[in-house]
UniProtKB/TrEMBL annotation:
Protein name stated in the entry: Serine aminopeptidase S33 domain-containing protein
Species annotation: Polytomella parva
A family per Pfam: Hydrolase_4
First and last residue of the signal peptide: 1-23
Gene3D superfamilies: alpha/beta hydrolase
Domain annotation Serine aminopeptidase S33: ranges: 82-329
The organism's place on the tree of life at top rank: Eukaryota
Keywords: Hydrolase, Signal
UniProt KW Signal keyword: yes
GO MF annotation list: hydrolase activity, acting on ester bonds
Length: 358
């Protein structure tokens, strides 16, 4: 009873803070999702250049979903290098990642593109739970699933690439440091590398009021989770006058939504659990760079307002020049998923793979 009273008092205090900040329209309490899209295990898509199979793999205490892309080749005894691939903040595998996987398959490279728990075809509630700790556990499950040769001999576990974009770019680096010599190469695209630096920039951009509003939403979500109440959601992307994890210009918002298909798995909505804001500043993939054994390719966007160029420059200085390759395009953060950038970026990645024996 005492615990319940304390929780209610905390909610009341946070509620007053929210009321003072006046942003009721900027938060959402829970949402219903369509889990019918989860029931597609075994689905196969066949083209002239690749076969895509939908599979499930164990992740912590539930199942995650992946699309396994296998090149179509007449050499039935051939084994393929495999790219382990996942998205960034609030993203799902159908949000543009398939374009890279399909392009890699046409070059003779397999891909294992998976959804984090609570996203896309993967199990887990509450939905849209962004968390570095949880995401890294999902990456471990995916990598271990492949290393155990569960997929069969057609996939060469001695030639594994970790591929992450945006928030997932940081995850790929952390996992690369953890798995060491078991990883052949690492690719990060517009990567998030330093939560501390990103938080400082966020506070500067939002101001005191905006930062307090974001913190209050995160605290309210955390407290409500202790009492099994509907979670609190904040927009993943919004304009500069909206409460959102990513505050974007009109061009950036257009580019963000351009990579999202009209129909999404799991009933996805562009909102994520507010508690993420309490965790992000402590997540610093940049501190793992010195532990990498594999070569690293960084593809960045010169007009990126989310992932600091200064942080990237600092990151590249932490590795020997022969271990890291940094390529930059004169575009914004979300432009890298579509043409005219897509083809040259894919070509750079494939050349990087070949350079390192894939």
């Amino acid at each position: 009873m005492l615990f319940l009273k304390i929780g209610l008092i905390l909610q009341f205090i946070i509620g007053l803070l929210l009321l003072k900040a006046s942003f009721d329209s900027d938060i959402k309490y829970g949402f219903d999702y369509d889990d019918s899209a989860l029931k597609n295990v075994g689905q196969v898509v066949t083209t002239d250049s690749f076969i895509r199979k939908t599979i499930s793999f164990p992740c912590v205490n539930m199942l995650c979903e992946a699309w396994l892309y296998t090149p179509v080749d007449q050499e039935n005894n051939k084994s393929y290098p495999i790219v382990v691939m996942a998205h960034g903040l609030g993203g799902q595998k159908e949000f543009g990642l398939y374009r890279f996987a399909e392009a890699f398959a046409r070059k003779g490279i397999a891909s294992f593109v998976f959804d984090y728990r609570s996203f896309g075809g993967s199990e887990g509630t509450p939905r849209n739970w962004v968390s570095p700790k949880r995401h890294l556990a999902d990456w471990r499950s995916a990598i271990d699933f492949i290393l155990l040769k569960t997929l069969g001999d057609k996939y060469d576990t001695n030639r594994i690439v970790l591929w992450g974009t945006s928030f997932g770019g940081g995850h790929a680096i952390v996992m690369g440091a953890e798995y060491g010599n078991q990883i052949t190469a690492i690719v990060t695209m517009v990567p998030h590398l330093d939560g501390r630096a990103a938080s400082r920039e966020s506070i500067h951009r939002r101001g005191v009021n905006g930062s307090v509003r974001m913190l209050a939403a995160g605290l309210l979500d955390l407290v409500r989770s202790l009492f099994n109440q509907d979670p609190v959601y904040v927009r993943l992307a919004g304009s500069h006058d909206q409460l959102a994890f990513m505050q974007l210009s009109s061009h950036e918002l257009d580019a963000y939504y351009a990579k999202i298909p009209p129909s999404t798995q799991g009933g996805w909505i562009p909102w994520a659990l507010a508690r993420f804001t309490l965790e992000t500043s402590f997540y610093r993939p940049i501190t793992y760079l010195g532990k990498l054994k594999a070569p690293l390719l960084i593809v960045s966007a010169a007009k990126d307002t989310l992932c600091s160029r200064e942080v990237l420059a600092n990151a590249t200085s932490l590795l020997p020049s022969e271990q890291v390759k940094w390529v930059e395009f004169p575009v914004s953060h979300f432009d890298v998923y579509l043409e005219p950038q897509l083809t040259p970026i894919v070509n750079i990645m494939v050349d990087f793979f070949k350079q390192h024996g894939l």
